[in-house]
Amino acid sequence: MEQHRLDVFQVIADPSRRQMLHLLSKDSLTINSLAENFDMSRPAVSKHVKVLHNAGFISIQDIGRERHCILKQDGFKQLQEWLTYYNAFWGSKLKKLEALLNERSGNSIK
Amino acid sequence: MEQHRLDVFQVIADPSRRQMLHLLSKDSLTINSLAENFDMSRPAVSKHVKVLHNAGFISIQDIGRERHCILKQDGFKQLQEWLTYYNAFWGSKLKKLEALLNERSGNSIK
DNA sequence: AATTTGCGTAACTCACAGGTTACATATATA
DNA sequence: TATATATGTAACCTGTGAGTTACGCAAATT
What we know:
The structure is a homodimer of 110-residue chains.
Chain A: H1 8-11, H2 15-26, E1 29-30, H3 31-35, H4 42-54, E2 58-63, E3 66-71, H5 74-102
Antiparallel strand pairs in A: 1-3, 2-3
The structure holds a DNA duplex (30 and 30 nucleotides).
């Protein structure tokens, strides 16, 4: 088996994969119908799909010989969690600034 | 000049850079004090800092011969915007489900 | 003025992600 | 059953991101 087990950050680093996610946000698609939107070979698309699947960005439903790709929330959640930490950082930074402004006791040294 | 102009997605794809952001969320650091935390050469850290700077994740304040790296919100905002699109997607998906559940008029065909 | 410190840049190596083509396999269709 | 369709996998090639070392330069320090 191949080693294509990239983490969520590496997964969205690729523009093609981001576009795939965007397409899948409009409609669920099979591998081939996905591939029609790209200027690359079908096996290449197939690889990307595998990567997206392994990282929890899509689920796959086999219908006969077709593989339907459906957007899945897991991968996005991991990213949001990471970002939320920094959102909190900016929030607390703002708080500190406010606290400083409320200190109207005229501290001018340094 | 070098071509190290990676987009925000590529920037956070690297674990070392993510750790740098984390360290900088605790405290502003110079290049050297940053480098102390990593098992890599100082020039390597310097490169990463350049990348982070170009993508808007940090600002740099030159004090004498020292370069102080400070966390900056711009890069994070771009990522949040991207994620927000999909958050909205999940939101609307939930709405559709709710709407479906509220249709208690027993539609069973397909 | 000489030395040390903090940092950037150039040139190089290397691993590996992302692409290809060729082939294999399972499911529809004729 | 023979053929077409939808897809996965193996083997390979290639560009480039991420690391290195060597060097240069400006700002402190002595």
